[in-house]
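Weekly puzzle thread! Below is a chain. First person to post its structure in token form gets bragging rights.
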Amino acid sequence: MDAQGRGRADDIDPADQWVLNPDTGDYELRLNQSGGDSGRASGRSAPRGSGRRGAAREGGGERPGAAGEGSRRGREVPRQGGRRSASGPRGKEAPAAAENSTGRRKRKAPKARRKKALLWTGGVMAFLLVGVSVGGYALYQHFNGNLNTVDIGDRGNKDVITANAPMNILIIGTDKRTGKGNEGYGDKGSVGHADTNILFHVSKDRTNATAVSIPRDLMTDIPECRSKQPDGSEKTIPGTDYVRFNTSLGQDGRDPGCTMDTVKKLTGLTVDHFMMVDFNAVKTLSTAVGGVKICLAHAVKDEKSHLDLPAGPSTIEGEQALAFVRTRHAYANGSDLDRIKGQQQFIGSMIRQMKSDDTLTSPTKLYKLADSATKALTVDSAIGSVPKLTSLAKELTKIDTKNITFVTLPVIDNPAEPTPITVVVDPVKAPQLLSMMQDDTSLTEVAAQKKAAKSKQDALLKGTKAAAADVRVDVYNGGDLGGAAQQTVTWLQNDKGVPKSTNKANAPEKAARTTLEYAPNQADQARALAAMMGLPGSALKKGTTDAEGLQAMVLTLGRDFKGAGTPITGPAKIDIPKASADKAECAK
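Winning reply:
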């Protein structure tokens, strides 16, 4: 099989076939798989004694030995001690492939091949979701050197990638005008605001994911945060109430850690890592995969974004790809919410393209994709290396595209504006969605997930329950329902016979979900209270040390609390628009 078809021949690792073409300065695919000067990639032989070897390039160069194409010769790669060597990026030596006495390569031992395989993701979001292999130590070092990092301190779970736990990654697209050709986009004086925001929730079992777009024009509270400044110093930035979400980055010196804090306050979900890109990412990554297929319900000619496409399917890359994800005026309402739908279509299509044989079997495309992705990324320092991102990629590639669901955080027009420009959180549907995510419930496998959650709850509640009179609990109100703590205490005391319940008024901060914190020696009390209130298993938080004396359990009522006596369980389904990564839809 030739390099065009699969990027390998005779089961030789594609990582062993990369060589530097001195004429172009690019890494290319070595087609010769046998000794001497014979070329096997196309089934044709190179002239003996020519002293030259073929090198293939895909997409942009000529391919030796390919039907209907001219020949392009590379310089001889000298042999030394039975090895071939080539200088890698940054002057480092690429790994050489061992040969036997006849000059024919030996198949690599599995251990050696594992060492050389560099599983990498294609970038942010869509860029995140594909594991591809390019190899060689020099390339590894090259990609590692491409990455930019930001220290976010102790935010998030640094071990979440390998932990047996759900994972939340915040994807941020900024409107900063960096990079060639981007002067005409975005806010001319922008320091880089959070223009596009997607919270990517990966389930504990890594079988599904929910990608929630957060509108940039959402009015919300930005909490006080610690931010790393360009000079390396750390600054504490005061919180700001009721402002646009996009100002959580850039404004007043806020870094991505501040955006992570804002998302946590808004959703109740701890953000473990962030990945950030600017305009160039869309242009370079869409080009690296050979274009992204999209569809428009009607022809578009938008002077503001410079998008000019016919109705129906198109394949876009570079400037047109950027124009597509930035356009608002191409859609019926001309709003940021419509633009989000277009971005979701683009990302879903890019995922499919990256997982297609056209990409995964092309070493040249894989190199370009990995190079573009690493150059495009700014990540938190906890994942700021190729080994860490490789580990992340391995987890994400377990997810079937049909189980990746795109949604937008439910919002409504801002009632405080006569002519609404901004939006606010939908008080009914948003808590439902966030509750499902907090319970790690998939939007694509709700029945199975609910069954698993019920099994977990049954297991937690199985066992001895304390008598109601022996249950001791302090109740805090962290939700939006006024007087909820007193309402609950009254209900517990009068209807359930729990006299040792105490109203502790408002919680220190708002909570999206209701939780019951208890000590190991209070498990029987926790089971009793959970049964009374209909708490889901995910609400029970067991501590590590036993309670002493009259220490009470702590019940914090969240936004999911609807009233005393109403069971607190996540909805079996939610009525909001959804899109799947494995389906193509036309933007309207």
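Puzzle host: Confirmed. Bonus trivia for everyone else. The CA atoms of residues 210 and 261 lie 19 Å apart.
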